[in-house]
Design brief:
Strand 3 and strand 4 form a beta hairpin. By secondary structure, the chain is of the alpha/beta class.
């Protein structure tokens, strides 16, 4: 009988494992296209809301006009959740003042409102002189939604800006003043993403306004005092400037180029 040398024994399980590993390296993994995703050349537009914020203008604090001798005791300030409307006023005081006298004028207004009228503070949230200098009025923080006492029935969710002077028909409204009002309105309304050209809804809290207490009312986001209360404030000249103020405020919020007013239905 012829003797034949046997082949070396092969351990099949180990060999199959090695072979499987080699094949796995050479073949693509099924479904791998769902693991590695290429970035599209043109990403889909974001659905996040665009907030139209305007920069905060320079505002002088209360200490710029209120001294210890004039300051009266007052309760803590009251706040709303946001500001969606701006009411523009005039102070019905002389127009031919030097801007350096603005703090004295504001101090006099404060004394009249907290004295003869027995208010707890000046009613306006902000004041502006004819040079365009902005002042913090009512206490509580310029950055916050302080409840003012400037628009009977509509002090909630609004802020009041008083222009120092009398702006009845024929009066000249300084450009620096209207620019400052627009900048302040753009900033305050931008905090709630409110378009200065929009119309907003408020609820009357007093029957002494043009609306009974509890009644809803719709106003321009930047409105004259006379829209909510039976008064000639802020005067015919300043009222006539409000459309331009709204347009400038919208521009400062980045909504439209200056001079373009988006048509409304």
């Amino acid at each position: 009988m012829k003797w034949t040398r046997p082949w070396p024994a092969v351990r099949l399980p180990g060999a199959l494992t090695a072979l499987t590993a080699v094949v796995a390296l050479l073949l693509p993994v099924r479904g791998s296209e769902r693991v590695v995703t290429a970035h599209p050349a043109h990403p889909a537009p974001s659905t996040a809301p665009v907030l139209h914020r305007a920069p905060r203008p320079a505002i002088l604090p209360r200490s710029a006009w209120l001294d210890r001798a004039t300051l009266r005791r007052q309760p803590p300030p009251r706040y709303d959740d946001r500001v969606v409307a701006v009411f523009v006023h005039h102070t019905a005081s002389p127009n031919d003042y030097d801007c350096a006298d603005a703090p004295r004028i504001i101090r006099s207004l404060y004394s009249g409102q907290t004295g003869a009228r027995h208010w707890d503070d000046i009613g306006y949230n902000f004041l502006v002189d004819r040079c365009g200098t902005l002042y913090e009025g009512r206490a509580g923080g310029a950055d916050r939604a302080v409840t003012g006492a400037h628009s009977q029935g509509f002090n909630h969710r609004s802020t009041g800006i008083a222009a120092l002077g009398t702006f009845t028909a024929g009066a000249q409204v300084p450009a620096a003043m209207t620019d400052a009002i627009a900048a302040l309105a753009a900033w305050k309304l931008g905090l709630s993403d409110t378009d200065p050209r929009a119309r907003v809804r408020l609820t009357s809290t007093s029957g002494l306004s043009r609306y009974r207490a509890g009644a809803p009312a719709t106003f321009p986001a930047v409105a004259g005092h006379n829209t909510g209360y039976a008064t000639t404030c802020p005067g015919a000249a300043l009222t006539a400037a409000l459309p331009a103020i709204r347009a400038k405020a919208a521009h400062l919020q980045g909504r439209t180029p200056l001079g373009r007013v988006r048509p409304r239905a």
